[in-house]
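Work package 3, deliverable 3.1, input record:
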Amino acid sequence: MKRFYYEKEMAQKEAFYVPLYKRASAVDVISIGYGLFVVTYLICFYVIAITNTFIKDPMQVDIKNMFLTPSFEHLFGTDFLGRDIFSRIVKATEAFFLPGVIAITVSTAFGLGFGIVSGFYPRYFSRGIFYFLDIIDSFPRVILILIVIILFNPSIYVIMAFVGITSIPKTASYIKTKVELLKEQRFIEACRALGLSKRHIIFKHVIWLYSKSVLIIQATLRMGESVLIETSLSYLGIGVQEPVPSWGNMVAMGKDFFFQGKIWLSTIPAVMILMTIMGLYLLGDGLNSLYNEKVSR
Amino acid sequence: MPMLAELEGLKVYFYDQGDKRFIRACEDIKFSIKEGTVLGVVGESGCGKTVAALSMMGLIDGEPGVIEGRFFFKPKQKDRRSVMLAVMRGSRKDRDFRRGELFDLFNGLKRCVEYDQYPYTIIKDSERWLRKNNRIMEHVRGKNISMIFQDPSRSLNPFVPVGIQIEKTIKWLSKNEKKGQLESEVAELLREVRIFNPKVVMNMYPDALSLGMAQRVVIAIALVSRPKLLIADEPTTGLDTTNKYRIIELLQQAMEKHDMSLLFISHNIGIVGSIADDIAVMYAGIIVEFGSKQQIIIAKRGPKHPYTEALVSSVPTDADIKKGKKLKVIQGIVPNNKMEVVGCPFLPRCPYAVGKIRRKCRERCPEAFEVTPGHSIRCWLYAN
Amino acid sequence: MVRFLKVFMREILNAVLLIIGVTTLLYLIFNIMPGSFIGKGQGFVGYIDIIRRLFTFKFGISPVSGRDIGNLVFPAFRNTLILTIGSIIVSLLISVPIGIFSSYRRFKSYSWTLSIFSYIISSIPVFFLGYLVIYLISRYTAVLPIYYLYEAQRGKPILSYVLPIIVLGIGNDSISEIVRLVGGELERVMSEDYVVASKARGERVLQSSIHEGIIIPIISIIFSKIPFLIGGAVIVEHVFNWPGAGRLAFQATLDRDLPVLVVIAFLSVLFVRAAALIKSMILYYYQTSER
């Protein structure tokens, strides 16, 4: 701490604005840090998977080396067909990464659109839009997905797009309340009085300056949910099918050997799911508590 | 007169996470309250009066940067044993937890917290201290010390009628009471604080009350337990002049009736002068002058701290008003409490700090010099 | 009372409108689907027929399995209802104490560990947790049955409720959410001025803060979790071979048995809407009784 005399100190200006990174408490830093770590390894895995730069081929069947325990040769061991589990785990990010991004995009785009429209024009559009959103909201999500699967027999991408549709209501109502709050504020009135166009107000002020944080937080939570849904469906055998790896169907395949004491077959993918989902939730919650300043005594 | 409470060397700093700096709230505060008397604490806003009161009640439960000091208090006879046990618990070896009948409510503070190097220290394990303090304060809060907060309407629960809130406190303090008896007790309490239609007021919500009424209700709740010490934190702020003096009268009568002492905090030296027996003048977190009312306000001549002098002379007299004189103001502002003080904090506003003495003022903050018995001043002008 | 009835009627009307919308959607789905079903291709007349069937609970016979849908679905729904409500109670029993504990400043370092614990258990995938529990229970103890026991076979089915309810209660991802909500709200209420004032009077403020701060958010979060819980039940019922609506729906998906699935969807929408109705009435009651 520097030492000041009073004469000097009087000239010092007091800072009222504290930048975001300084506001973070230790808990926030840890949770956001862990979340960023998770995001980093997901991206690395995905890049390896799409460029196909594996050291060991994830699809290579090797009957001689079944059920190897984790070692340097095979980092996470091998499965019941002698395939390298680590490579399969890396490969399995393909199963949810792009579909998850699709789900986020769908829910964010439509949720933002519906939310802003119904927030700005509560008289004409709000009721109609929210009637349809309530219809979607009253279905349990998994039941809706099962109906879609019966009807179209779709790929995981279409299923995830539907997952995105089912989470539109939540995003839309968030944005709607935010817009309704903002509309009352003086600075939006001031913008109008300055003669800014409505489009400018919506895109610059409402979306970019005030809804950005909500959207980022929602997106991370959505990604966690997407991972959970994809792995669950693959576990049930109606998502990604063998031999294409997914963390869900790896757990499902491994569980048959659970009772023989070969627990790593299903435990390793399950732990990966746990770590990933936890990281994404922690990231979302950490950002949330960072952006919404806490009031303390 | 026997002592009721003694506060020694209280030091409270908060740590600002954003600026990475300490906020200096209280610095080496020392005062004492005798039984049945009123201690007035005067000072500008933001000089740590409220923080001192809150830390006496053990209500600072944020994460303080630094907390230090001792607080001796003489509990009621029936709580004496339980307070003593709570104070002694976990620190039996400390011999000086009591001073006659007074117990150190901050006992074990040094053991519970872990300081980084002196003088600027962060408490690492403040939780242990909070738990220990809570255990002691269980027997003290409400039963022995009550507190009235700054804004009366905000210290009442807005969702519950006034009568029920008072009943709750009565029930809390004495377990077995009958329903009908409770209601009449509440009515009597309200009558005692000069609310003449208690049956109506009992069913009102706090936002239906005027500020003066709310303040009376708050005082009534504080008096339920017949405390030995009542801390009144700016009880007259926001009231008009007639109401102000009525509240003060009320407090004085309650004191006489229940044999209670009062710690009266205010920024208005006129009001403090009308009620207090002893006065402590605070400035920028330190007590610059402590003495009796006679020594500080009434005596026209004699040693005084420059700040007290300025405060007293800024109150207009009748003669001044008749002549149409301008009000006297103290030049400058209270120093920013985020900075470390080197030297006397009153230096930039002090008219006497000229010539030789100024260097001394800049270098070191003065200790309290006792000019006459019971009258101490923190100023280099009175350094023996 | 009159106002209460008015609000109640409005909510009922809202729910009925939504259910009609849902049936319309389902009818459209019927018409897209290849294959034959009663009311298909008959336009509005067919729609009326479907509505009559759905609302009188006479669903007819499944074209795939040849069994009466009503007999299949209602017992399954009873089981799922037990599972859902039980698991909500389990979630609350775990998360609310953690939340309350973590709102205390003087236990901050313990509560950090506890909230990390709540994050971990709420992101364990349900299917793995189910198998882990089955493995541990069947390998090391034989206290609880791991599959659903029918009354005819041996003993009490009530015992076989225990494991699925606990697993679904832990594994639905609401625990961390409730912990965060309870902790945050309680901390906010406890730093209100009037709460500090009553603390200064020596009262215990926990009970009144809970009453004021967290009952309403908890009610709204519980009822809004019900659709998700039914979704989670699909997997838990699959793992524990539990004869509930979720397993039935999954089986129907594998068999391409659309009518059964549609009936399940309709009934679960009824369930969700009823829950929403109860929720809004409870919230209305609380808000009016408080002021």
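Residues 306-329+342-384 of chain B form one domain.
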